[in-house]
Amino acid sequence: MAIRQKIPKALAPCILEVERKFRSLAVRQLTQRGGTPPFQTLHALPLQTVRDTYYDKAGLLSSAGAWIRRRNGVWEAKIRKGGDFTNSQFEELHEVGDIAAYVERITGVQAGEREDFGLVTMADFITTRETWIADNEFHIVRDNMDFGHEVGEVELQQTLEGKGGEALSEVEKRAEMQRMDKRITEFMTRYSWAFADGQPIGKLTAYFKKMGNTSSSLAR
């Protein structure tokens, strides 16, 4: 009788995202040579229209630092791993099974994609998004929401895989995100002419304030 060898399940790549918010651009239009020093490179991406629907269950996910959303019909989960309101560090989940497992771990609800993972809608809005890629890797984003709010972000994203079939440890993830955050800080300091001073207000915070929702304290 042949012995069937067990094949280990492939590990999904780990997607890390680090972002720093800014209130608005300090220039009317972002261009490569709009200030000193100029960007090494600057490439504008096509204008996007994004519909985001955010979900939660009695604030459990927000309290855990997680945001589950459906962006233009595609499910995403952003799980906070560090940072604060202005500079945030996340691990992103895109596989439906991974999102369902995470939601069940936090809420205790076992439900699939068709049941919205047992969650209810807490926010729904449309964003007009301008994006530039600066110095070949830093994403500069300016978002204008349909409820009259603007906020920007500088983002770095890394897709990593564990070594030897082992998943990355939380220590390894945090160390990598700290390096990414340091690079964003240096980038924004170098090109400070592009970013306006002032405290940024996140899109969910602004949305809840507009709607008179007390959940704004949990927003990002």
UniProtKB/TrEMBL annotation:
<dbReference type="GO" id="GO:0000287">
    <property type="term" value="F:magnesium ion binding"/>
</dbReference>
<dbReference type="InterPro" id="IPR012177">
    <property type="entry name" value="ThTPase_euk"/>
</dbReference>
<dbReference type="InterPro" id="IPR039582">
    <property type="entry name" value="THTPA"/>
</dbReference>
<dbReference type="GO" id="GO:0042357">
    <property type="term" value="P:thiamine diphosphate metabolic process"/>
</dbReference>
<dbReference type="GO" id="GO:0050333">
    <property type="term" value="F:thiamine triphosphate phosphatase activity"/>
</dbReference>
<dbReference type="GO" id="GO:0006772">
    <property type="term" value="P:thiamine metabolic process"/>
</dbReference>
<protein>
    <submittedName>
        <fullName>CYTH-like domain-containing protein</fullName>
    </submittedName>
</protein>
<dbReference type="InterPro" id="IPR033469">
    <property type="entry name" value="CYTH-like_dom_sf"/>
</dbReference>
